[in-house]
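Fold this sequence, please.
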Amino acid sequence: MNQTASRPFAHFIELLSSMRFAISLLVFICLASIIGTVIPQGRSANAYIDMFGPFWFDIFNRFSIWHIYNNWWFLVTMAFLVISTSLCLIRNAPKMLKEARSFREHIRTSSLQSFHHRVELDTTRGVPAATASVQAWLKRQGYAVRQRDEGDSVLLAAKRGSGNRLGYIFAHASIVIICVGGLLDSELPVRLQVWFMGKTPIVENMLIADVPERGRLSVNNPSYRANVLIPEGSARDSAVVNIDDGALVQPLPFSIALKKFIVDYYSTGMPSRFASLVEVTDPDTGKKFDATIEVNEPLHFKGVTVYQSSFDDGGSQVELVGYPLSGPSDKSFELKSRVGQSSDVTMKSAGKELKVEVTKLRPINVEDLSAGTPSAPKPLGEHVAAVTGSAAGKTNKNLRNIGPSVEYRVIDASGQATLFHNYMVPVELDGARVMLAGVQEPGATGFRYLRLPVDEENSMGDFMRLRAALADPAARLLATQRLVASYGGSPEEQKALQISAERALDTFANGGLLAISNFLEKNVPEPEQRRAADIIIRLLGSSIAELRNVARERAGLAPLPNTPERMDEIADWSRLSVAALSDLALYPSPIMMTLKTFEHVQASVFQVSRTPGKITVYIGCLLLIIGVFTMFYVRDRRIWVWLRPAETTGGTRVLAAMTSQKRTLDFNREFDRFKQALMRLNQG
């Protein structure tokens, strides 16, 4: 009964330790590694949704292929590979070592006669003399020889290259050692603490000092990879280990303070070098020392390695100017905040309570504006690639620095958030100076930019006053009256022009160019719509120019000089304003924030790691090299020579055979040399 019960277990162990099972696991790991190489790891969920779409994202997300090397099923597969290969070694290594030590001296003459590479001859020498001669030749060739006497007969068993078996042992052991090293440096040690030691990743937004004990790892944690962001002038003695949708706090055996962050740029605007000047304090001794951490030049201290990962904003202070985008008021307001901070804003004209969260400050924006809009802002990871790559050799003549910009998020009362990206200074596009205001609506990728024309002071003052005047019916009426008066004509013509201008301006004020288009489709026959649209656009441009002067006068500014030299400039400005005002009708926020001033605070992002498995992996790689070299270049050869007294001649009857695992051309040549050596026994 016991034998019956143990038989399935024995079969399971045999399967687990078999070569086919290990190869299957290796193939699976290789396929998973290919996926992990092809698909970028560690990106945000939105990035993968954009890449694959919601349907495939849900499927791939079930298998967590975004973190494939720290995925539980990948780690379990690695663990099974370690177990399988270890069992294979335990089963086969003793046999291989025994085989390597064995001379196989119990072979019989009948067995030697079945070998393909064999020699049979008679010599006039006696058995002792022939034995000594053959044994001497074998030793000169590097063979280990064992002699066995059977009465008058002698068997010489020789071997060379039996260390070939060690190659198989080293190669298999290296797989185990490398996998163990990889598991030590993976998330497995941290996950084991989560699974079995009560550690719980923190998903709430809280200060590190407020994290409870269940969310903290030990300072003596044997293996981890964590990240820490340190603003200039600040110090940190703990890092954050991201795991699943939460994080654990990893205390460090030292504190590190960022004294200064240095960044140099190529002419293209990409960073060529960034470095962190830090001060490290050992709490055990109180000693301090300075160090410089750069890409590929980490800091090693107390078994922990600190890498320069990237850089970020350290809480820069910004001063924003907000403009209302609804109602007849053009009164702006100022908002002082810092990156990462939210502020409450009350829009009385719109009757809305909003939150404005500053998410990012970019002091330098090197963009290619040849396409008419800036390229998508690049993540910090790509800046690191630029430092370690060949960005210096790539020059784009269209790249130029267009100054600082700010990103902010507007959150309404329902929690709906919209991201905005606005530049601080105007840029010249298509011969006109405009302010770029970007918007990224929820679910969209990238920013779409509005071009807002600037006035002679390079500000949006005139445009924002024009927007407020457009929302005021009295101002619109005054502008159309001035337009009609400037054209002259009969009273009937003036009245018709007045009606057309009022209708065009009112329709535009309540929906932009889309409202104009809808009006034409409903009220003008299709063959005449194009001609009518041209007339209305020209009329609208002229009305906007008059409305601009009305807005300036209300603000106590002088009207623009209507000279021939300025007419084209005013007309171009009005044309850009018409397009911008039309776009504002679809703008998803009742306010627009612009950057007035800022105080930039840099921060370094460090990766902090303790990787005890690194040395283990190095040892495994060394064993793998030795094992592969031994398997391919060390050939196991064995020779048996039976020497018996010849009954008829009084000499010696010689029966010899030679074999090897790999019967190559070199083996055949060596057998020929051995054969010639035996034939020379009759000489001398």
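The longest strand covers residues 246-265. The two ends are 71 Å apart (CA to CA).
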